[in-house]
Amino acid sequence: MSDDRLERILDAAYACFARHGVRRTTMDDIAAAAGMSRPAVYQYVRNKDDAFRRLAQRLFDGAAAQAAEALAGGGTLTERLTRALDAKLELTLRLWRESPHAAELLGANARVSADLDAAFTTRMRDLLSAAVSGAMAAGEVPGDRLTAQELAELALALTRGLEADLSDPSAPRRRLRAGVALLVAGAAHESEERMT
């Protein structure tokens, strides 16, 4: 099977889901948007839920790759964590920018691909934890108050909270930068206080 055709189907599925929502999108819609027959589409995806799951996996894989790249890049721990978490935040922001059905799509994600979302969250936590561990080993951030995993989980919780309130679309990125800076500074401050 051609990966190009599957990508075309997933691109078409995204466009249809964003335009019509999950409930109103049909396999005929996806096939038409992909420029393929419905039987040809069924050679690549079993049904609409399968298309949704494959699309979600592709989006999660892309965000995780961006996060890994951000964490491997230069800058302070705060800058690297912010860039990595922005890759996660962008998944939700993109839906809200591109679809009037964003709430339905996010709800469908929880229904159809909750396991994929959980695996993505674990992957993000592991990436963030590794970056924090490296910063602790390098002395950039003390490690006697919080573990790397705890700091990573707090950063993810912050991001989830920002994803829950998108009433001001310009605010989440600004708040993410400030929140991550506070988390990292707070971890360093707690350590300093314990030493005095």
Automatic annotation (TrEMBL):
Residues 3-63 form the HTH tetR-type domain. Keywords: DNA-binding. SUPFAM superfamilies: Homeodomain-like (SSF46689). Residues 26-45 bind DNA. It holds the Pfam family TetR_N. The keyword DNA-binding applies. PANTHER family: HTH-TYPE TRANSCRIPTIONAL REGULATOR PKSA, HTH-TYPE TRANSCRIPTIONAL REGULATOR RUTR. This is TetR/AcrR family transcriptional regulator. It comes from Planosporangium thailandense.
